[in-house]
Design brief:
Blueprint (H helix, E strand, L loop, with lengths): L12 H34 L2 H28 L2 H24 L5 H29 L5 H29 L2 H21 L12 H4 L4 H13 L2 H22 L1 H8 L4 H25 L5 H21 L5 H29 L2 H32 L2 H21 L1 H4 L10 H8 L1
Length: about 425
Amino acid sequence: MATQFSVNDNISWKNRFFTIWGGQALSIVGSQLVQFALIWYLTIQTGSATVLATASLVGLLPNVILGPFIGTLVDRWDRRHIMLVSDTVIALATIGLAVLFALDVIQVWHIYVVLFIRALFESFHSNAMTASTSLMVPVEHLTRIQGINQMINGGLNVISAPLGALLLSVLPMQGVLAIDVVSALFAIVPLLFTRIPQPERRMRNAEDAGQETVWQGVKAGLRYVIGWPGLLLVGLMTVGINFTIIPAFSLMPLLVKEYFGGSAIHLGWVESAMGIGMFAGGGLLGAWGGFKRNIVTSMLGLMGMGVGTLFFALAPATALWLAILGALLVGVMTTMTMGPFYAMIQTIVEPDMQARIFSLLSSVGSAIVPVGLLIAGPIADRFSIQVWFLFGGLLCILMAVCGLFVPAVMQIESRDGIISGDVAEGLAS
């Protein structure tokens, strides 16, 4: 089990962690505003679905293609320096974009470049912050911290779009970008004066005794996941969620318009309900901390997520309120699923492996989303949108029920069932 916490830090951990966390949270607000503003600008200026799809793809590529390598580098480099450099580069890229807007020479490809840079360094930053949390927070508080993180994400889902729209109505684009630069300073300054513990490097094989290459580090992460069946199965469950639920909710505008006969305001109600659910679920998880075993909380949350998704599949066309209730339930249960899952990884995975494990799971999860979208669209067109919601809801419930009865999954926090490194290496290769 990972060594998360030093007894000598028992008094000061809250001050140190929340000083860094608070600055990062403010920076995330600025980032969300910029993301909304840029996508809205592309929508207004081009009206092209291809342009918007390309922008989304540019934002996904760094995590999908480079994620495992980024995680390996984060595990090897000083995490405080990674976060400082990442925040600084993102701020400089944003300043450059603001200058282009101010000079009125902006081109679509300029935005693509900046979106790529932001996504690349945000991947470095998020992996460094997530992997460092277990070194700054006592293990008994990790689930609560994840609940607070989920609450912030839910709150941003509610306010980022209307706040971004309001700012764009009173400020030029470079003014909105300037807000992000200022918010980045709140993330950078605390890092200049706050120490972030570094993980102890452990020798697991002969490669560790010498100079491990980045590729060898990636393979070590892959062997680690394959050699731990419980972790592998839970990771595959997150892939199943991304494959079904994310594509399902990307079809939400069509479902609201075509099936429920709703308008943009009704779509706003559904999306706001999900954000409110995430906010409420995060608050509940932060206060409660979940069941003693994180895996139980995650599996029950996954089951609840499936039930909420079924509301969309089974609601009559005259009962939009059921879809809103389903969105609220999905929001709450998403927090109950993912919060304990992240806390569990932070608890059971050694600190010097966490970044590459998080990035590996995130990379695979992100890569499966386009596959799900490619399949969900034709199925929805051929049959109905509700069919994909039905499939996603039933799959979530099935995965949760199976997980509750699979020993490798339920014993994951005791690290039982880890296979030997030689066997794992053979599977990985």
